[in-house]
Amino acid sequence: MSDMIDMYRDFRAFKMARRRMYGIPCPQCAVKQPRRQPTILLPQQRCKVDGYRDPRPELTQAQIEAIEI
């Protein structure tokens, strides 16, 4: 059971590091709802609030491997 918990913690830390390195605030959130905290978008991700899709290309395998936790 402990190995599974460690695996999920590592996965969560990886997701947080990925958002920290490659995430950008949604520009439409700042326009449509300026008082709200903007959604952090990864490349090609769609904002659930206003439907904006980030136009940047998907992350390459080299970029994913370069993420430091």
Describe the protein's topology.
Layout: H1 2-22, E1 24-25, H2 27-32, E2 40-41, H3 61-65
Antiparallel strand pairs: 1-2
Overview features:
3 helices; mainly alpha; 69 residues; single chain; 2 strands; 46% helix
Contiguous low-pLDDT stretches (5 residues minimum) are: none
The helix/strand series, from N terminus to C terminus, equals HEHEH
How many helical stretches? Answer: 3
Count of domains: 1
Widest β-sheet, arrangement of strands: 1-2
Work out the radius of gyration. 15 Å
> Termini separation (Å)?
23 Å
Describe the structure.
With 69 residues, this protein is mainly α. It has one domain. It has three helices and two strands, in the order αβαβα. It has a two-stranded antiparallel ribbon. It is globular, with a radius of gyration of 15 Å. The mean pLDDT is 93.
